[in-house]
Amino acid sequence: MEKRQEPVIVQVPSMKLFHVVVVILVVGAFFLGSLWTKVEFLKGGSVAGVQQAAQPTGTTQQAEPKVTLDTVKQAFAGSLIKFGDANKKLLLIEVADPSCPYCHASAGHNGALNKQMGDRFVLTADGGPYVAPVPEIKKLVDSGSAAFAYLYTPGHGNGEMGTKAFYCAFEKGKFWDVHDKLMTSEGYSLLNDSVKNDKTKSEEVAQFLKDEFNPQDMKSCLDSGKYDARLGEDIALARSIGVSGTPGFFVNATAFAGAYSWKDMESAVNAAL
């Protein structure tokens, strides 16, 4: 007689066990997602729901972890906007974009924007802890204690016309006047909401700056295109010292990648002096 084969019985997990497994998977996914978010935050990446303003280093990315003083001096020598010479004991470089919010925070003339970035960025003039580094740099430059160079790199995307205005102003000895005007709340709005790198809006830029710089001269300079290629030269110099975002500062060979408070830079400055 042929032996009858018994049917195979497959055990189906109970609904209770199934629910437990689902809960474990959901919790695990949440944990991994949270871990990824934290890693991206620490790396300076852009993560939905995480505000960049909470980062002490702003938006700068460092392509090169180590830069020598000779490299910094070469970048200084190649820059257009510079004060002093590379033989100073203290050599300072700022890599910036006048449309970049963190650059405005560092410039110290747009207090309302600083407040929006969180408590750590509130200016001392407004009762906060943040000492904007650019005014302190200017003091050292004016006193003859430091040499300073300004380099452009597109950290926010709308700073080309503003930077060319800086170049035009520098050739007439008006860099700081035009710089400080464009680094106000009104200047931020002008570049990001209206001009947006549009070369046909040179008149608008010139009129905004009329109290600081002759508007006819500014419009003529911007329209000439004489500084169009200079933007790319600055970007290349910034990359040569490892900066591909803004703001980025150098105190001699010490890099400060982001919108650091001057308090964080002082020890490096004092050591150089």
TrEMBL record:
Xref: SUPFAM superfamilies: Thioredoxin-like
Pfam families in the cross-refs: Thioredoxin_4
Keywords: Disulfide bond, Membrane, Oxidoreductase, Redox-active center, Signal, Transmembrane, Transmembrane helix
Gene3D superfamilies: Glutaredoxin
Thioredoxin-like fold domain segment(s): 138-270
GO molecular function: oxidoreductase activity
Annotated TM spans: 17-36
Entry-linked InterPro entries: Thioredoxin-like_fold, Thioredoxin-like_sf
Domain of life, per lineage: Bacteria
Keyword Membrane part of the UniProt annotation: yes
Family classification: Belongs to the thioredoxin family. DsbA subfamily.
Name of the protein in its database record: DSBA-like protein thioredoxin domain-containing protein
